[in-house]
Amino acid sequence: MRKLLYSLVTFIAVFCACQDENSQLGKSLVNSSFYNVFVDTCSVDISTILLDSIETQGDSICQLGHYKDNTWGEVSAAYYAEYSKNSFTPSEDCSYTLDSLVLRMIPSGHFWGDTLTRQRISVYRLKYPIVLDNDDKLYTTSTLQREEIPLFSFTFTPYPGRKKEIEVRLPDEMGQKWLNDLIVRDDYFDTQEKFKKKFPGLVFVPEVSGQCITGFLVNDSAMSLNLHYHEVSNQRVEQTLTFSVNTEYTYTSVQHDRTGTPLASLQSGIENLIHSNSMNYRAYMQGLTGFYNQLEFPFLNDLQNAGKIVSIETATLYLYPLANSYNSVNQLPEDIRLYITNENNVLEDYIYGSDGVTVQTGNLTIDEMYGRETYYSFDLTEFIRNNFGTWGTKRQKLLMSLTDEESAITFNQVIFTNDPNQDKQCRLDVRFKIYNEQ
User: Fold this and answer.
1) What sections of 301-380 are H helices per DSSP?
2) Of 76, 214, 220, 279, which residue has the fewest beta carbons closer than 10 angstroms?
3) What's the CA gap between 353 and 179, in Å, rounded?
4) What pTM does this model have?
5) Considering only 50-59, 254-263, 322-331, which range has the smallest mean pLDDT?
6) What are the pLDDT digits (tens) for 279-320?
7) What region, left, alpha or beta, does residue 35 occupy, with left being phi > 0 and alpha being psi -120 to 50 degrees?
């Protein structure tokens, strides 16, 4: 950084290539000049931080599956769900026959891993109703007891681009039991409290042989249990009774083993962050596993050496994903956000666009042909102006993560490269104006 500044100042002094034609002001009074200077390699210190858990209670998308690789480690995602009661009023003039009890699943389009491999999911009854943690939340680390033997199992192929609906038939014994109890109007269908004591819910658990994690929609009709039956009198009428997920008591649980990976030594908490120069000049971000980043600009104030007065004109941050780290297996997040923090890492604000209202989301540019010019970019002009010339406790920092929603419902990920010996690295481009007396 210092070498670059010296080269720039020397270049200006000898060739005056960056001099504005109208820069000489008040020449009869003061012999002075203004120059516009552009620096494209202002150092970025980017670190990786790990959250201890993420709230996933009631999310509109759940994740199911298992995946293992050498970079991120071994990850398993299970889904816990309580179901809402339902009932109907039987008629004495009709008889009722069971067709089936079916689980309806709709992929969300999110995935991580090999989508061509078949996945096997085992579904267990919970032993007890789902209860909230002490703060009335449910997190990726929350665990509950389940029955030892699965109620049923099924396999599927993701096909994430097609979002093909999946229907899984539950044991007929369970469907017949529910239908019989509905006909006799058993009181456990009267209230939700009674229903969940009788049927605490289900947990969907992936087998560890799987190599893909898939997202599924969660709403009134998705991840629902549907009781199909016929009402028989003078004619047979097909009926369906839907037991939807009770979103107040549902969540995605994540188990993550980082042994043997570049992330193995990382401990949760911002005080345990690891700088990219200690991780082979890389920084890691991913939803649901809880990886996010901190950014600082340690040599920003060195720009003051360029002239007697230095003013920041523009500042643009470029963040490059590591080449070949994103492909048909890994999905890059479309949106990422920057948050301004104080010296105590307390969030103060977002990084906004030029209108001062719109929150910037990274402006992802994808190089479809070669991948070399794939990057995220942020306009940091206002932030850099506010922090230029500040030191110590007065200097603000930036935290970077996926959006709150995407952090809780996807495994979308990005590995940023920050190797000073490589052409494509995280950098801050600064255009500034200097004033020197002659």
Assistant:
1) none
2) 220
3) 57
4) 0.87
5) 322-331
6) 999 999 999 999 999 999 988 888 888 888 888 999 999 999
7) beta
> Would you say 419 and 425 are in contact if contact means Cβ atoms under 8 Å apart?
yes
What strand order describes the sheet that includes 309-319? 32-42, 427-437, 309-319, 376-379
* The residue to which tokens 């104080």 are assigned: 342
Token reading at 178: 């529910």
Residue 274 and residue 295: Cα distance in Å, rounded? 12
Q: How far is CA 70 from CA 255, 260, 264, 314, in A?
A: 16, 8, 11, 40
User: What's the gap between Cα 330 and its chain centre?
Assistant: 12
Give the residue from 185, 98, 75, 131 showing the smallest Cα distance to 411. 75
424 CB-near residues (< 8 Å, 6+ apart): 320, 323, 372, 375, 417
Where is 345: in which H helix or E strand? none
What residue segments make up the domains of the chain, in order of their start?
A: 2-51+268-437, 61-257
Strands (DSSP E) found in 114-269: 119-125, 152-156, 166-169, 202-206, 212-217, 224-232, 236-243, 245-257
pLDDT of residue 162: 65
Query: What are the distances in angstroms from CA 372 to CA 235, 368, 414?
Result: 67, 9, 15
Residue found under tokens 């600009």: 297
C-alpha 436/C-alpha 31 separation (Å) is: 9
Mean pLDDT of 36-56: 85
